[in-house]
Design brief:
This protein has 422 residues and is an all-alpha fold. The chain is globular, with a radius of gyration of 23 Å.
Length: 422
């Protein structure tokens, strides 16, 4: 659970009276654009780094290697500046998360989303207008700050604003929007790469301003969550907002539950120290290990560098971008499948199934590349290249299912450990 919040699920399992009010729908749609923005930033970088005009302007050494064709396919993109362009967003996001935790708790969810929107707009403007590598990197850092603040506040906002009976679905709405953002970025890159004057990369980076603007406007229009107001001692205001978003006057049971949850949360002293106690270590180790190993599978590298990866397999630029579009589509479809199957099949089954398929697909890819690409400069035969691409799609689909289950299990185990830390 993001820092700064407290659990609002009814301890008795009773479903509180609530309507799906327009303010809930608008709030959730606007807030979910934070996921769209994050996904777009993930997907767009791989596409623009495969565009010759972008490389020629900012990374001429890489562009020259590609034009000369003498170096290994895998070494052509070996450039620290190019790696900094991609990784700076995520390093900035990691750092910003710690500050976002404070603002989410002290200022509220709504101001934190507004801060994220402002960071996104500034970063997008710098990237789209970039004239040198410094502007490009600073823009990516600002986008990373936006990611850190949005990923902290938006899922928490969605969880707290939604009625209990649809809370799970709306929580996954954020992740679904991340995958949709990746797909949109791939589609846009595929189109802008065809612009002959060489400014397509500017359009790709600049269109990130659309979800950034929606998030900023949404943060101005939505209300603060009752949880945040109660957490900061504004009880009457919190009750009034709860009546508005639930569409009923009968909010006393839920209000009292929120007040009690806030009181219990404030009574927990040194939560991180308690979490490290021996009785909580099994849950902590499993929760952390699931997240770490899920990241180490390499799913993020696939999503960040899909067009570059397909280029190294011998695909032409259009084919590489087209394959990245299909990868994004597979990611979206598999997310939807996991939403509908997780409750029917169970978390453990899906996690095991995803792990086995990811392992098999990676082994097949490794064998083909290890045997057939002997000197690194050879491109794969068409049939083998297609097999590798299919295995990549299989890997991405399983990675999406596994990610959602890992996140769910980590939240459950983390909550269990905190509950036993008192």
């Amino acid at each position: 659970m993001p820092a700064g919040g407290f659990s609002t699920a009814p301890a008795t399992g009773v479903e509180f009276e609530a309507k799906i009010t327009p303010i809930v729908i608008i709030s959730c749609i606007m807030a979910a654009t934070g996921g769209l923005m994050f996904g777009y930033d993930v997907g767009v970088s791989g596409g623009v780094t495969s565009m010759p005009s972008f490389l020629k302007k900012f990374f001429p050494v890489v562009h020259r290697r590609i034009e000369e064709g003498g170096d290994s396919n895998y070494c052509k993109y070996d450039n620290q500046g190019l790696q900094l362009f991609t990784s700076s967003l995520y390093l900035a996001g990691l750092t910003a998360t710690f500050f976002a935790s404070y603002t989410t708790r002290r200022l509220g969810r709504r101001p934190t989303m507004l801060i994220a929107g402002i960071f996104f707009i500034l970063g997008t403007a710098l990237n789209a207008a970039a004239q040198n590598i410094e502007m490009l990197i600073i823009g990516r850092i600002l986008l990373g700050c936006g990611v850190g603040f949005a990923n902290q506040a938006v899922p928490l906002f969605l969880s707290e604003i939604a009625p209990t009976r649809i809370r799970g679905g709306l929580n996954i709405l954020f992740q679904l929007n991340v995958t949709i953002g990746i797909l949109f970025a791939s589609l846009i890159n595929y189109g802008t790469a065809k612009i002959k004057d060489g400014w397509g990369w500017r359009l790709s980076l600049g269109l990130a301003g659309v979800p950034a603007g929606l998030l900023t406007i949404g943060a101005l229009l939505v209300v603060e969550t009752p949880n945040s107001l109660i957490e900061r001692g504004r009880l009457e205001e919190g009750k009034a907002i709860l009546r508005r978003i639930r569409g009923t006057e009968n909010v006393e049971p839920e209000f009292l539950e929120l007040v009690e949850a806030s009181r219990i949360a404030k009574e927990v002293k040194h939560p991180f120290r308690n979490l490290l106690k021996r009785r909580n270590q099994p849950q902590l180790i499993i929760a952390v290990a699931l997240q770490v190993f899920q990241q180490l599978t390499g799913i993020n590298a696939i999503m960040f560098y899909a067009p570059v990866l397909f280029n190294t397999l011998g695909f032409k630029n259009d084919a590489a971008l087209y394959s990245a579009v299909i990868t994004g589509a597979v990611n979206v479809v598999s997310t939807v499948v996991s939403i509908y199957s997780v409750d029917k099949l169970g978390r453990r089954i899906l996690l095991l199934e995803a792990g086995v398929q990811m392992f098999i697909s990676q082994v097949v890819i490794a064998v083909i590349l290890g045997i057939k690409v002997k000197d690194d400069t050879n491109n794969l035969h068409n049939a083998l290249a297609i097999v590798v691409v299919v295995m990549v799609f299989t890997f991405v689909s399983c990675g999406s299912n596994g990610l959602h289950i890992c996140v769910f299990l980590c939240l459950v185990m983390g909550s269990f450990g905190m509950a036993n830390s008192k």
